[in-house]
Amino acid sequence: MLENEVLLIVGAGHAGAELAVAARQQGWLGRIDLIGDEAVLPYQRPPLSKAYLHGAATFDALALRPASAYEAAGVERHPGAHVARIDRAGHWVHLQDGRVMPYTKLALCMGGRPRTLELPGLNAGATPRNLHCLRTLSDADAIRAGLKEGTRLVVVGGGYVGLELAASARKFGAEVTVIEALPRVLARVTGSEVAAFYEAVHREAGVHLRTGSSVERVELAGDGVITALVCASGERIAADIVVAGIGMLPNVELALAAGLAIDGGIIVDEFSQTSDPDVFAAGDCTVHHSALYNRRIRLESVPNALEQARAAASMLCGKPKPNCAVPWFWSDQYDLKLQMVGLSQGHEACVLRGDVASRRFVAFYLKEGVVIAADAVNRPADFMLAKRLVAAGAKVDAFVLGDESVPLKECLPASPVGPSTVAQALCQ
Ligand SMILES: Cc1cc2nc3c(=O)[nH]c(=O)nc-3n(C[C@H](O)[C@H](O)[C@H](O)COP(=O)(O)OP(=O)(O)OC[C@H]3O[C@@H](n4cnc5c(N)ncnc54)[C@H](O)[C@@H]3O)c2cc1C
Q1: Fewer CB in 10 Å around end: N or C, the chain?
Q2: CA of 324 relative to ligand 1 center, distance in Å
Q3: Main-chain phi, psi angles of 143, to 5 degrees
Q4: Which CATH class is domain 6-113+249-316?
Q5: Does domain 335-427 bear CATH number 3.30.470.30?
Q6: Which of 45, 161, 243, 308 to mutate to test ligand 1, by most ligand atoms within 8 A of the CB atom?
Q7: What does the pLDDT look like over 171-200, one tens digit per residue?
Protein backbone atom coordinates (compact mmCIF):
# COMPACT_ATOMS: atom_id res chain seq x y z
CA MET A 1 0.00 0.00 0.00
CA LEU A 2 1.48 3.30 -1.09
CA GLU A 3 0.49 6.94 -0.74
CA ASN A 4 0.13 7.35 -4.50
CA GLU A 5 -2.35 4.48 -4.81
CA VAL A 6 -5.99 5.30 -5.46
CA LEU A 7 -9.01 3.43 -4.12
CA LEU A 8 -11.97 4.38 -6.27
CA ILE A 9 -15.44 3.36 -5.10
CA VAL A 10 -18.45 3.39 -7.43
CA GLY A 11 -21.73 3.81 -5.56
CA ALA A 12 -22.16 5.82 -2.37
CA GLY A 13 -24.81 3.78 -0.56
CA HIS A 14 -24.47 1.61 2.54
CA ALA A 15 -21.61 -0.48 1.13
CA GLY A 16 -19.68 2.29 -0.63
CA ALA A 17 -19.78 4.75 2.27
CA GLU A 18 -18.78 2.06 4.77
CA LEU A 19 -15.93 0.86 2.59
CA ALA A 20 -14.52 4.36 2.13
CA VAL A 21 -14.33 5.05 5.84
CA ALA A 22 -13.33 1.50 6.87
CA ALA A 23 -10.44 1.47 4.36
CA ARG A 24 -9.05 4.65 5.86
CA GLN A 25 -9.53 3.35 9.40
CA GLN A 26 -7.73 0.13 8.51
CA GLY A 27 -4.75 1.99 7.09
CA TRP A 28 -5.27 2.79 3.38
CA LEU A 29 -2.67 5.50 2.80
CA GLY A 30 -3.54 6.77 -0.66
CA ARG A 31 -6.41 8.72 -2.13
CA ILE A 32 -10.01 7.48 -1.70
CA ASP A 33 -12.61 8.61 -4.25
CA LEU A 34 -16.27 7.89 -3.51
CA ILE A 35 -18.41 8.39 -6.61
CA GLY A 36 -22.19 8.26 -6.29
CA ASP A 37 -24.89 9.31 -8.70
CA GLU A 38 -27.26 10.59 -6.03
CA ALA A 39 -26.76 14.25 -5.18
CA VAL A 40 -27.06 13.95 -1.40
CA LEU A 41 -24.87 12.59 1.39
CA PRO A 42 -24.89 8.76 1.61
CA TYR A 43 -28.05 7.84 3.51
CA GLN A 44 -29.87 4.90 5.09
CA ARG A 45 -32.43 3.33 2.80
CA PRO A 46 -34.49 1.30 5.34
CA PRO A 47 -36.31 4.35 6.83
CA LEU A 48 -37.57 5.29 3.34
CA SER A 49 -40.47 2.87 3.79
CA LYS A 50 -40.72 3.40 7.55
CA ALA A 51 -39.90 6.41 9.78
CA TYR A 52 -38.99 8.78 6.93
CA LEU A 53 -42.09 7.94 4.93
CA HIS A 54 -44.51 8.51 7.78
CA GLY A 55 -42.71 11.62 8.95
CA ALA A 56 -41.03 10.41 12.16
CA ALA A 57 -37.54 11.03 10.72
CA THR A 58 -36.09 13.86 8.66
CA PHE A 59 -33.29 13.57 6.10
CA ASP A 60 -30.75 14.66 8.73
CA ALA A 61 -31.53 11.49 10.66
CA LEU A 62 -31.06 9.41 7.52
CA ALA A 63 -27.55 10.49 6.57
CA LEU A 64 -25.12 7.66 7.34
CA ARG A 65 -22.47 10.17 8.49
CA PRO A 66 -22.11 13.93 8.48
CA ALA A 67 -20.03 15.48 5.65
CA SER A 68 -17.31 16.21 8.23
CA ALA A 69 -16.75 12.48 8.83
CA TYR A 70 -15.75 11.95 5.18
CA GLU A 71 -13.51 15.03 5.33
CA ALA A 72 -11.88 13.75 8.52
CA ALA A 73 -11.25 10.39 6.84
CA GLY A 74 -9.80 12.08 3.76
CA VAL A 75 -12.51 10.65 1.51
CA GLU A 76 -13.11 12.68 -1.67
CA ARG A 77 -16.84 12.57 -2.34
CA HIS A 78 -18.15 13.01 -5.88
CA PRO A 79 -21.94 13.27 -5.49
CA GLY A 80 -24.19 13.45 -8.55
CA ALA A 81 -21.57 11.69 -10.71
CA HIS A 82 -22.35 8.57 -12.73
CA VAL A 83 -19.71 6.07 -13.79
CA ALA A 84 -20.46 4.96 -17.34
CA ARG A 85 -17.55 2.64 -18.18
CA ILE A 86 -14.66 0.78 -16.60
CA ASP A 87 -11.37 0.34 -18.44
CA ARG A 88 -9.74 -2.50 -16.52
CA ALA A 89 -6.67 -2.66 -18.73
CA GLY A 90 -5.89 1.03 -18.21
CA HIS A 91 -7.22 1.18 -14.62
CA TRP A 92 -9.56 4.07 -15.44
CA VAL A 93 -13.25 4.77 -14.99
CA HIS A 94 -15.13 7.00 -17.41
CA LEU A 95 -17.81 9.24 -15.99
CA GLN A 96 -20.95 10.23 -17.85
CA ASP A 97 -19.89 13.90 -17.63
CA GLY A 98 -16.73 13.13 -19.62
CA ARG A 99 -14.27 12.95 -16.72
CA VAL A 100 -11.84 10.05 -16.62
CA MET A 101 -10.52 8.99 -13.20
CA PRO A 102 -7.68 6.56 -12.41
CA TYR A 103 -7.68 3.77 -9.88
CA THR A 104 -5.24 1.35 -8.36
CA LYS A 105 -8.06 -0.63 -6.71
CA LEU A 106 -11.69 -0.34 -7.71
CA ALA A 107 -14.74 -1.19 -5.60
CA LEU A 108 -18.17 -1.65 -7.15
CA CYS A 109 -20.96 -0.89 -4.68
CA MET A 110 -23.75 -0.03 -7.09
CA GLY A 111 -26.73 -1.60 -5.33
CA GLY A 112 -29.76 -2.25 -7.47
CA ARG A 113 -32.74 -0.65 -9.10
CA PRO A 114 -36.43 -1.50 -8.73
CA ARG A 115 -37.99 -3.94 -11.16
CA THR A 116 -40.37 -2.09 -13.39
CA LEU A 117 -43.99 -3.01 -13.50
CA GLU A 118 -45.15 -4.15 -16.92
CA LEU A 119 -48.81 -3.23 -16.91
CA PRO A 120 -51.11 -4.03 -19.81
CA GLY A 121 -52.83 -0.83 -20.77
CA LEU A 122 -49.76 1.35 -20.19
CA ASN A 123 -48.16 2.81 -23.27
CA ALA A 124 -44.64 1.41 -23.75
CA GLY A 125 -42.08 3.72 -22.13
CA ALA A 126 -44.75 5.89 -20.51
CA THR A 127 -44.56 6.38 -16.73
CA PRO A 128 -47.76 7.84 -15.33
CA ARG A 129 -46.94 10.50 -12.76
CA ASN A 130 -48.83 8.60 -10.05
CA LEU A 131 -46.88 5.36 -10.62
CA HIS A 132 -43.88 5.07 -8.29
CA CYS A 133 -41.30 2.67 -7.00
CA LEU A 134 -39.42 2.96 -3.70
CA ARG A 135 -35.64 2.82 -3.72
CA THR A 136 -34.35 6.36 -3.35
CA LEU A 137 -34.97 9.44 -1.27
CA SER A 138 -36.69 11.14 -4.20
CA ASP A 139 -38.99 8.11 -4.65
CA ALA A 140 -39.96 8.36 -0.95
CA ASP A 141 -40.51 12.14 -1.25
CA ALA A 142 -42.73 11.68 -4.30
CA ILE A 143 -44.87 9.03 -2.55
CA ARG A 144 -45.07 10.98 0.69
CA ALA A 145 -46.21 14.12 -1.13
CA GLY A 146 -49.34 12.30 -2.29
CA LEU A 147 -50.26 10.59 0.98
CA LYS A 148 -53.06 12.04 3.06
CA GLU A 149 -56.26 10.92 4.73
CA GLY A 150 -58.35 9.03 2.21
CA THR A 151 -55.68 8.76 -0.51
CA ARG A 152 -56.27 5.52 -2.39
CA LEU A 153 -52.87 3.82 -2.44
CA VAL A 154 -52.43 0.58 -4.33
CA VAL A 155 -49.22 -1.31 -3.66
CA VAL A 156 -48.31 -4.00 -6.16
CA GLY A 157 -46.17 -6.57 -4.33
CA GLY A 158 -46.50 -7.98 -0.82
CA GLY A 159 -42.82 -8.14 0.06
CA TYR A 160 -41.32 -6.35 3.03
CA VAL A 161 -41.01 -2.97 1.23
CA GLY A 162 -44.64 -3.11 0.06
CA LEU A 163 -45.92 -4.08 3.51
CA GLU A 164 -43.83 -1.46 5.31
CA LEU A 165 -45.15 1.13 2.90
CA ALA A 166 -48.72 -0.07 3.54
CA ALA A 167 -48.19 0.23 7.32
CA SER A 168 -46.71 3.73 6.97
CA ALA A 169 -49.50 4.89 4.66
CA ARG A 170 -52.14 3.75 7.14
CA LYS A 171 -50.67 6.28 9.59
CA PHE A 172 -51.86 9.00 7.18
CA GLY A 173 -55.31 7.42 7.04
CA ALA A 174 -54.75 6.37 3.44
CA GLU A 175 -56.98 3.65 1.94
CA VAL A 176 -54.43 0.95 1.18
CA THR A 177 -54.73 -2.11 -1.05
CA VAL A 178 -51.85 -4.54 -1.50
CA ILE A 179 -51.96 -6.83 -4.53
CA GLU A 180 -49.71 -9.89 -4.35
CA ALA A 181 -49.49 -12.42 -7.17
CA LEU A 182 -48.36 -15.29 -4.93
CA PRO A 183 -50.77 -17.02 -2.54
CA ARG A 184 -49.24 -15.25 0.46
CA VAL A 185 -47.26 -12.16 1.41
CA LEU A 186 -43.52 -12.21 2.27
CA ALA A 187 -43.22 -15.42 0.25
CA ARG A 188 -39.57 -14.82 -0.67
CA VAL A 189 -38.36 -14.08 2.84
CA THR A 190 -40.38 -15.96 5.41
CA GLY A 191 -42.43 -19.08 6.17
CA SER A 192 -46.19 -19.41 5.85
CA GLU A 193 -46.90 -19.14 9.62
CA VAL A 194 -45.21 -15.74 9.89
CA ALA A 195 -46.76 -14.61 6.60
CA ALA A 196 -50.23 -15.53 7.90
CA PHE A 197 -49.55 -13.53 11.06
CA TYR A 198 -48.57 -10.46 9.03
CA GLU A 199 -51.58 -10.82 6.76
CA ALA A 200 -53.84 -10.81 9.83
CA VAL A 201 -52.04 -7.77 11.29
CA HIS A 202 -52.44 -5.79 8.07
CA ARG A 203 -56.10 -6.73 7.67
CA GLU A 204 -56.73 -5.69 11.27
CA ALA A 205 -55.07 -2.35 10.49
CA GLY A 206 -57.49 -1.83 7.62
CA VAL A 207 -55.26 -2.80 4.69
CA HIS A 208 -57.08 -4.58 1.87
CA LEU A 209 -54.96 -7.57 0.92
CA ARG A 210 -55.40 -9.32 -2.39
CA THR A 211 -53.15 -12.37 -2.42
CA GLY A 212 -52.99 -14.78 -5.36
CA SER A 213 -54.12 -11.89 -7.48
CA SER A 214 -52.54 -10.33 -10.52
CA VAL A 215 -53.12 -7.05 -12.29
CA GLU A 216 -54.65 -7.61 -15.69
CA ARG A 217 -54.79 -4.03 -16.92
CA VAL A 218 -54.78 -0.41 -15.87
CA GLU A 219 -57.27 2.30 -16.55
CA LEU A 220 -55.90 5.69 -17.45
CA ALA A 221 -57.32 9.19 -17.39
CA GLY A 222 -56.93 11.44 -20.42
CA ASP A 223 -53.68 12.88 -19.01
CA GLY A 224 -52.20 9.39 -18.67
CA VAL A 225 -52.61 9.15 -14.89
CA ILE A 226 -53.65 5.70 -13.58
CA THR A 227 -57.19 5.79 -12.22
CA ALA A 228 -57.67 2.08 -11.46
CA LEU A 229 -56.09 -1.35 -11.63
CA VAL A 230 -58.20 -4.23 -12.85
CA CYS A 231 -57.29 -7.65 -11.45
CA ALA A 232 -57.55 -10.98 -13.25
CA SER A 233 -60.56 -11.74 -11.00
CA GLY A 234 -62.32 -8.77 -12.60
CA GLU A 235 -62.07 -6.67 -9.44
CA ARG A 236 -61.48 -2.98 -10.18
CA ILE A 237 -59.40 -1.12 -7.61
CA ALA A 238 -59.53 2.66 -7.86
CA ALA A 239 -56.16 4.35 -7.29
CA ASP A 240 -54.74 7.80 -6.62
CA ILE A 241 -51.19 6.48 -6.18
CA VAL A 242 -49.73 3.18 -7.36
CA VAL A 243 -46.43 1.87 -6.01
CA ALA A 244 -44.65 -1.09 -7.53
CA GLY A 245 -42.85 -3.07 -4.84
CA ILE A 246 -41.91 -6.08 -6.90
CA GLY A 247 -38.26 -6.45 -6.05
CA MET A 248 -35.02 -5.15 -7.46
CA LEU A 249 -32.45 -5.96 -10.09
CA PRO A 250 -28.77 -5.77 -9.17
CA ASN A 251 -26.78 -3.12 -11.03
CA VAL A 252 -24.26 -5.35 -12.77
CA GLU A 253 -24.11 -3.88 -16.26
CA LEU A 254 -20.86 -1.93 -15.71
CA ALA A 255 -19.17 -5.05 -14.35
CA LEU A 256 -20.58 -7.21 -17.14
CA ALA A 257 -19.33 -4.82 -19.82
CA ALA A 258 -15.92 -4.81 -18.11
CA GLY A 259 -15.76 -8.61 -18.38
CA LEU A 260 -16.05 -9.46 -14.67
CA ALA A 261 -17.62 -12.79 -13.66
CA ILE A 262 -21.37 -12.43 -13.06
CA ASP A 263 -24.03 -14.91 -11.94
CA GLY A 264 -27.14 -12.95 -11.06
CA GLY A 265 -24.79 -10.48 -9.34
CA ILE A 266 -21.08 -9.70 -9.38
CA ILE A 267 -19.35 -12.81 -8.07
CA VAL A 268 -17.19 -12.08 -5.02
CA ASP A 269 -15.34 -14.24 -2.52
CA GLU A 270 -15.31 -13.91 1.26
CA PHE A 271 -12.94 -10.94 0.95
CA SER A 272 -15.31 -9.21 -1.52
CA GLN A 273 -12.79 -9.73 -4.32
CA THR A 274 -14.19 -10.16 -7.85
CA SER A 275 -12.66 -12.21 -10.65
CA ASP A 276 -10.14 -9.35 -11.06
CA PRO A 277 -7.76 -8.99 -8.09
CA ASP A 278 -7.81 -5.19 -8.50
CA VAL A 279 -11.61 -5.01 -8.39
CA PHE A 280 -13.76 -5.51 -5.29
CA ALA A 281 -17.54 -5.40 -4.96
CA ALA A 282 -19.96 -5.24 -2.03
CA GLY A 283 -23.65 -5.03 -1.25
CA ASP A 284 -26.83 -5.73 -3.19
CA CYS A 285 -25.02 -5.96 -6.55
CA THR A 286 -22.98 -9.03 -5.51
CA VAL A 287 -23.39 -12.78 -5.11
CA HIS A 288 -21.17 -14.87 -2.88
CA HIS A 289 -20.74 -18.46 -1.84
CA SER A 290 -22.34 -19.10 1.53
CA ALA A 291 -20.54 -21.77 3.53
CA LEU A 292 -23.62 -22.01 5.71
CA TYR A 293 -25.99 -22.88 2.85
CA ASN A 294 -23.40 -24.32 0.47
CA ARG A 295 -24.61 -22.29 -2.49
CA ARG A 296 -24.23 -18.91 -4.07
CA ILE A 297 -26.55 -16.30 -2.58
CA ARG A 298 -27.40 -12.68 -3.24
CA LEU A 299 -28.55 -10.73 -0.22
CA GLU A 300 -30.43 -7.45 -0.14
CA SER A 301 -29.69 -6.23 3.35
CA VAL A 302 -27.80 -3.52 5.18
CA PRO A 303 -25.88 -5.99 7.40
CA ASN A 304 -24.58 -7.81 4.32
CA ALA A 305 -23.56 -4.53 2.62
CA LEU A 306 -21.64 -3.50 5.73
CA GLU A 307 -19.96 -6.88 6.31
CA GLN A 308 -18.84 -7.15 2.68
CA ALA A 309 -17.54 -3.56 2.73
CA ARG A 310 -15.52 -4.28 5.89
CA ALA A 311 -14.12 -7.50 4.42
CA ALA A 312 -13.05 -5.57 1.30
CA ALA A 313 -11.40 -2.88 3.42
CA SER A 314 -9.49 -5.48 5.43
CA MET A 315 -8.19 -7.15 2.28
CA LEU A 316 -7.29 -3.84 0.63
CA CYS A 317 -5.28 -2.89 3.69
CA GLY A 318 -3.41 -6.18 3.90
CA LYS A 319 -5.23 -7.40 7.02
CA PRO A 320 -7.61 -9.93 5.45
CA LYS A 321 -10.66 -10.77 7.53
CA PRO A 322 -13.20 -12.93 5.71
CA ASN A 323 -16.89 -12.21 5.73
CA CYS A 324 -18.54 -15.29 7.26
CA ALA A 325 -21.58 -13.47 8.65
CA VAL A 326 -24.88 -15.30 8.89
CA PRO A 327 -27.45 -13.46 6.74
CA TRP A 328 -29.84 -11.36 8.77
CA PHE A 329 -32.41 -8.70 8.14
CA TRP A 330 -35.13 -6.72 9.85
CA SER A 331 -38.49 -5.17 8.98
CA ASP A 332 -40.56 -2.68 11.01
CA GLN A 333 -44.32 -2.64 10.50
CA TYR A 334 -46.72 -0.94 12.93
CA ASP A 335 -45.49 -1.80 16.46
CA LEU A 336 -43.78 -4.97 15.24
CA LYS A 337 -40.06 -5.49 14.87
CA LEU A 338 -39.40 -8.54 12.74
CA GLN A 339 -35.81 -9.80 12.80
CA MET A 340 -34.86 -12.62 10.49
CA VAL A 341 -31.71 -14.72 10.52
CA GLY A 342 -30.74 -17.31 7.96
CA LEU A 343 -32.61 -18.42 4.87
CA SER A 344 -35.70 -20.51 5.52
CA GLN A 345 -36.15 -21.90 1.98
CA GLY A 346 -36.17 -25.68 2.04
CA HIS A 347 -37.20 -26.02 5.69
CA GLU A 348 -39.15 -29.12 6.71
CA ALA A 349 -40.64 -27.89 9.96
CA CYS A 350 -41.51 -24.59 11.58
CA VAL A 351 -41.51 -24.49 15.39
CA LEU A 352 -43.19 -21.56 17.12
CA ARG A 353 -41.90 -20.36 20.45
CA GLY A 354 -44.26 -17.99 22.22
CA ASP A 355 -47.83 -17.03 21.58
CA VAL A 356 -48.57 -15.55 18.16
CA ALA A 357 -51.61 -13.74 19.60
CA SER A 358 -49.33 -11.87 22.03
CA ARG A 359 -47.42 -10.47 19.01
CA ARG A 360 -44.17 -11.70 20.60
CA PHE A 361 -42.87 -14.98 19.24
CA VAL A 362 -40.09 -16.70 17.32
CA ALA A 363 -40.54 -19.01 14.34
CA PHE A 364 -37.66 -21.47 13.99
CA TYR A 365 -37.13 -23.24 10.67
CA LEU A 366 -35.67 -26.74 10.81
CA LYS A 367 -34.26 -29.13 8.25
CA GLU A 368 -33.10 -32.56 9.40
CA GLY A 369 -33.45 -31.20 12.95
CA VAL A 370 -30.97 -28.41 12.25
CA VAL A 371 -32.05 -24.80 12.86
CA ILE A 372 -31.45 -23.19 9.44
CA ALA A 373 -33.30 -19.91 10.03
CA ALA A 374 -35.49 -18.03 12.49
CA ASP A 375 -37.88 -15.08 12.46
CA ALA A 376 -38.35 -13.20 15.72
CA VAL A 377 -41.28 -10.85 16.23
CA ASN A 378 -40.75 -8.35 19.06
CA ARG A 379 -38.28 -10.73 20.77
CA PRO A 380 -34.86 -9.07 20.32
CA ALA A 381 -33.14 -11.06 23.09
CA ASP A 382 -34.31 -14.36 21.61
CA PHE A 383 -33.22 -13.12 18.20
CA MET A 384 -29.63 -12.79 19.43
CA LEU A 385 -29.74 -16.41 20.60
CA ALA A 386 -31.45 -17.52 17.39
CA LYS A 387 -28.55 -15.98 15.47
CA ARG A 388 -26.14 -18.13 17.47
CA LEU A 389 -28.25 -21.26 16.93
CA VAL A 390 -28.26 -20.74 13.16
CA ALA A 391 -24.56 -19.85 13.00
CA ALA A 392 -23.72 -22.94 15.05
CA GLY A 393 -25.82 -25.21 12.86
CA ALA A 394 -27.47 -26.37 16.07
CA LYS A 395 -29.51 -29.57 16.03
CA VAL A 396 -32.34 -29.03 18.50
CA ASP A 397 -35.29 -31.14 19.50
CA ALA A 398 -38.38 -29.39 18.09
CA PHE A 399 -40.36 -29.99 21.28
CA VAL A 400 -37.66 -28.35 23.42
CA LEU A 401 -37.32 -25.43 21.00
CA GLY A 402 -41.00 -24.66 21.30
CA ASP A 403 -41.11 -25.09 25.07
CA GLU A 404 -40.83 -21.68 26.70
CA SER A 405 -40.05 -23.22 30.08
CA VAL A 406 -36.67 -24.27 28.66
CA PRO A 407 -34.38 -21.23 28.32
CA LEU A 408 -33.34 -20.81 24.70
CA LYS A 409 -29.74 -20.54 25.83
CA GLU A 410 -29.89 -24.19 26.83
CA CYS A 411 -30.54 -25.12 23.19
CA LEU A 412 -27.12 -23.85 22.15
CA PRO A 413 -24.65 -26.67 21.50
CA ALA A 414 -21.89 -26.99 24.10
CA SER A 415 -19.30 -26.76 21.36
CA PRO A 416 -20.23 -25.12 18.05
CA VAL A 417 -20.69 -27.60 15.23
CA GLY A 418 -20.37 -24.96 12.53
CA PRO A 419 -21.88 -24.06 9.20
CA SER A 420 -21.24 -27.44 7.61
CA THR A 421 -24.16 -28.90 9.61
CA VAL A 422 -26.62 -26.51 7.99
CA ALA A 423 -25.09 -27.11 4.57
CA GLN A 424 -25.32 -30.90 5.07
CA ALA A 425 -28.94 -30.69 6.22
CA LEU A 426 -29.87 -28.63 3.20
CA CYS A 427 -28.19 -31.11 0.87
CA GLN A 428 -30.35 -34.00 2.13
C1 LIG B 1 -37.45 1.03 0.98
C2 LIG B 1 -36.37 0.09 1.42
C3 LIG B 1 -36.40 -0.44 2.70
C4 LIG B 1 -35.39 -1.30 3.12
N5 LIG B 1 -35.45 -1.80 4.39
C6 LIG B 1 -34.44 -2.58 4.83
C7 LIG B 1 -34.41 -3.05 6.17
O8 LIG B 1 -35.32 -2.79 6.94
N9 LIG B 1 -33.34 -3.77 6.58
C10 LIG B 1 -32.30 -4.08 5.74
O11 LIG B 1 -31.34 -4.75 6.14
N12 LIG B 1 -32.31 -3.68 4.44
C13 LIG B 1 -33.36 -2.93 3.97
N14 LIG B 1 -33.36 -2.51 2.69
C15 LIG B 1 -32.30 -2.96 1.79
C16 LIG B 1 -31.05 -2.11 1.96
O17 LIG B 1 -31.39 -0.75 1.91
C18 LIG B 1 -30.05 -2.47 0.90
O19 LIG B 1 -29.71 -3.83 1.08
C20 LIG B 1 -28.81 -1.60 1.01
O21 LIG B 1 -29.14 -0.27 0.70
C22 LIG B 1 -27.73 -2.11 0.07
O23 LIG B 1 -26.65 -1.22 0.08
P24 LIG B 1 -25.76 -1.03 -1.23
O25 LIG B 1 -24.68 -0.09 -0.86
O26 LIG B 1 -25.42 -2.34 -1.80
O27 LIG B 1 -26.73 -0.34 -2.29
P28 LIG B 1 -27.43 1.09 -2.27
O29 LIG B 1 -27.71 1.53 -0.86
O30 LIG B 1 -28.57 0.95 -3.21
O31 LIG B 1 -26.32 2.04 -2.88
C32 LIG B 1 -25.89 1.96 -4.22
C33 LIG B 1 -25.59 3.36 -4.71
O34 LIG B 1 -24.84 3.29 -5.92
C35 LIG B 1 -25.32 4.26 -6.82
N36 LIG B 1 -24.90 3.87 -8.17
C37 LIG B 1 -25.33 2.82 -8.91
N38 LIG B 1 -24.70 2.78 -10.10
C39 LIG B 1 -23.87 3.83 -10.14
C40 LIG B 1 -22.95 4.33 -11.11
N41 LIG B 1 -22.76 3.72 -12.28
N42 LIG B 1 -22.25 5.47 -10.84
C43 LIG B 1 -22.42 6.09 -9.63
N44 LIG B 1 -23.26 5.66 -8.68
C45 LIG B 1 -23.99 4.54 -8.92
C46 LIG B 1 -26.82 4.21 -6.57
O47 LIG B 1 -27.47 5.36 -7.06
C48 LIG B 1 -26.85 4.14 -5.03
O49 LIG B 1 -26.78 5.41 -4.47
C50 LIG B 1 -34.35 -1.64 2.23
C51 LIG B 1 -34.32 -1.12 0.94
C52 LIG B 1 -35.32 -0.26 0.54
C53 LIG B 1 -35.28 0.32 -0.85
Answers
A1: C
A2: 21
A3: -70, -45
A4: alpha beta
A5: no
A6: 45
A7: 999 999 999 999 999 998 899 999 999 999
